[in-house]
Give the backbone structure.
Amino acid sequence: MAVCGQRPHDLERDDLARGVLADFRERKRGPGGVGMRARGSLLPAHARFPRCVDHTLLRSDATKADIETLCDEALEWDFAAVCVNGSWVSLCADRLRDGNVRVASVVGFPLGAMPSVEKVREAKAAVDAGTHEIDMVAPIARMLGGEWSHAEDDIRGVVEAAAGRAVKVILETAALTPLQIVHGALVAKRAGARFVKTSTGFHPAGGATSEAVELLRFVVGDACGVKAAGGIRDCATALGMLAAGATRLGTSSALALARCLDRHTATLSEVLADPARHADVCEMV
């Protein structure tokens, strides 16, 4: 019997998702597990740590001065992006206009529970204000209820409103079962998202885990980025997320992490190849 709100093809997708999860678990049991075998090429060969990081400030009490400081720090360290609430997008776009740092705006944050049409309006407003990327919260309750077609339509609406800009879909993986994570990643990929993302960092269930990142990477393959966010506050955690398959990190501890991980000449790939070497000099333990 279908659950209220499910469509017939939602149930048909269960077999696909279950098959993907079974394949993941089988490969994990194999020699070496899924590990890093297929992921070294996903990070640019000469990338330094800041280029994999979204310098994030999403507190409701962040002031204009706080956001300006965020942008200045991002320019100084050459982070990939600043991630801010929508009301600050135009300020960030103006302050970052002469650098390589992108602006990422959140949509439907932090609950993902607003009507899809409102997410679309919010995404269009962010685009008009100058955002380069959108981090949207998926409709978590609908996913928990197995309404995967609704979730896909919700995501696709934001992808279309983004008009070619990268959309990162926040799945809130700590609140989902492994099978639901697989489903969520599959619908995000089908809807045209460029990234799947673990967490808002605001959900009581928790933030990113290396296990969730590894599963997301397995599901989307090389077709999408994987952004780990939520609870990344030290170098060991950050490197663990990248080793598990993340290509972007979202953290409010970006500055402290960059100061520690980027103070040497080693590229990120070199650090990941020998994390124990950094552990010996890490200041965030």
The first strand starts at residue 53 and ends at 57. The mean pLDDT is 92. The chain has twelve helices and eight strands. The chain has one domain: 8-24+47-279.
